[in-house]
Design a protein that fits this description.
Elements lengths: L3 H10 L6 E5 L3 H14 L3 E6 L14 H14 L7 E8 L9 H17 L4 E4 L16 H25 L7 E4 L21 H17 L9 E6 L4 E2 L4 E2 L7 H6 L7 E4 L7 H10 L3 E4 L1 H21 L8 H11 L12 H10 L12 H15 L5 H7 L1 H8 L7 H20 L11
Parallel strand pairs: 1-2, 1-10, 2-3, 3-4, 4-5, 5-6, 6-9, 9-10
Antiparallel strand pairs: 7-8
Length: 441
């Protein structure tokens, strides 16, 4: 049975440098770009949904796990990407959304959450129980024992659900699991920081030891046959305008530590905006699962803004989609997804709404009025001739591909190519023989 993530672990055991990219996104255009790029190399694709995006109550996408699966599969079918090459993952699955509830109520909802993800066929499950709940002590750090105990309960539910599925389909693939509590803030930091603390090796040893104890208590002595990843902080993060780049030297002790544990790799969150060279070095060092999220929609937004600049010069004022202006209006009318995260003067807030690495505008790209605006932008530019010289001005990398016959002068494809360029950074990182232009490394 084809199991690309376990295959990656096996290859690394035999000394082959390789990794897996986890694309954490619910954006249709981004997912299209991911599938189209994977089709070129006959790759499998791992797409993850967070508990914030997708849950039993709909999340901010309005989708339950089965809905998100159908959403992704429908995109694949439309562009002729094989569904058997899609791996779905659930990220931050646990009581994340119910921290105002006491443990019993929060864990009951978390149990329902993980069960729905496994039932829907998600094969990579990140069990995240690192958050303090309403009846946890407020004046002490949540203990590793509590975190591991709650994770073990969720693991048991996942495995019981899998066994039920196996009784109906003997070929049902078993999920792999990611554990770990040292998780960077989803979507990046809110304030600039001088440095990021790298996870200490002794924390890794302690975490793995305590998790094993708690799993053993529930009778899962072989749980680590299925637990293949540990989330750590290797020193990478980003904020509104700053990036903490990977430093292999500072992460050396952390990366050396994982070599003691057979069959486990690190999972790096917030790898967005790292250089291709640093991404590759992370994989070489043992951070073999690279998660990327906001950078994907940030890249798409860059493409859409560039198309808007072309529209401003080529399309009569009364006919323009005015994507940048419409997006700003929508974000001003609904501040829920950015107001707590962006701070500063009126001008600074405008810049952050448009250009922050945290990319809070991604929450608005699926709004009906924004989707209609994007379609109008595409139609406007597809109904006129874009001079190649102007394309070079506003979309220089895409100009090269169009010039060389590798990319169509089509607005939708031009926007998605911004995402494709980013995907190639990650392909360079996880594939031992992948070549990327030196200017991008």
């Amino acid at each position: 049975m084809n199991d690309p993530i376990r295959n990656m672990i096996s290859k690394r055991k035999s000394g082959i440098m390789c990794g897996v990219v986890s694309f954490c996104t619910a954006n249709e255009l981004v997912i299209e770009a991911i599938f189209e790029q994977a089709n070129k190399s006959d790759d499998f694709v791992l797409i993850e949904a967070t508990a914030n995006q997708v849950n039993q109550f709909g999340g901010y996408t309005g989708m339950q796990p089965i809905d998100f699966k159908e959403f992704v599969h429908n995109i694949a079918e439309r562009i002729n990407f094989p569904k058997d090459k899609i791996i779905l993952g659930g990220d931050h699955l646990g009581p994340l959304l119910w921290t105002n509830d006491p443990e019993e109520a929060a864990m009951e909802k978390a149990i329902d959450l993980v069960k729905l993800f496994v039932q829907a066929g998600y094969k990579k499950i990140h069990l995240d129980t690192s958050m303090r709940l309403a009846d946890d002590p407020k004046d002490v750090v949540l203990s590793d024992e509590t975190i591991a105990r709650r994770a073990a309960i969720l693991y048991q539910v996942c495995e019981e659900t899998y066994q039920e599925m196996l009784s109906h389909n003997p070929r049902e693939a078993r999920p792999v699991y990611i554990i770990g509590s040292e998780v960077p803030i989803p979507g990046g930091t809110q304030e600039a920081e001088e440095s990021i603390s790298v996870t200490k090796p002794e924390s890794v040893d302690k975490t793995l030891s305590i998790y094993k104890q708690e799993f053993d208590k529930l009778g899962f002595e072989n749980a680590f046959d299925n637990i293949i990843g540990l989330v750590v902080q290797p020193g990478v993060e980003f904020g509104d305008s700053e990036i903490h780049h990977y430093n292999s030297y500072k992460a050396a002790e952390l990366c050396d530590c994982i070599t003691k544990y057979d069959g486990i790799v690190y999972e790096g969150h917030s790898t967005d905006y790292q250089t291709p060279k640093n991404l590759r070095k992370m994989v070489e060092d043992g951070i073999a699962i690279l998660k990327v999220g906001p950078a994907l929609t940030f890249a798409l937004r860059e493409g859409l803004f560039s198309l808007s600049k072309l529209e401003q010069e080529l399309v009569p004022k009364q006919d323009r989609a005015n994507f940048m202006e419409v997006l700003e209006t929508v974000m001003q009318n609904d501040t829920d997804y950015w107001k707590k995260h962006y701070h500063g003067t009126t001008k600074q807030l405008l810049i952050k709404r448009r250009y922050s690495f945290s990319d809070r505008c991604r929450y608005y790209l699926t709004r009906a009025e924004i989707v209609d605006c994007i379609h109008k932008l595409f139609d406007n530019l597809d109904n006129i001739d874009i001079p190649l010289s102007m394309l070079r001005q506003y979309m220089p990398l895409q100009y090269i591909k169009v010039r060389d016959g590798k990319l169509k002068m089509n607005a939708r494809d031009l926007a998605k190519d911004y995402v494709a360029v980013l995907i190639e950074d990650y392909n360079y990182a996880i594939k031992p023989n992948h070549i990327i232009g030196a200017v991008l490394v």
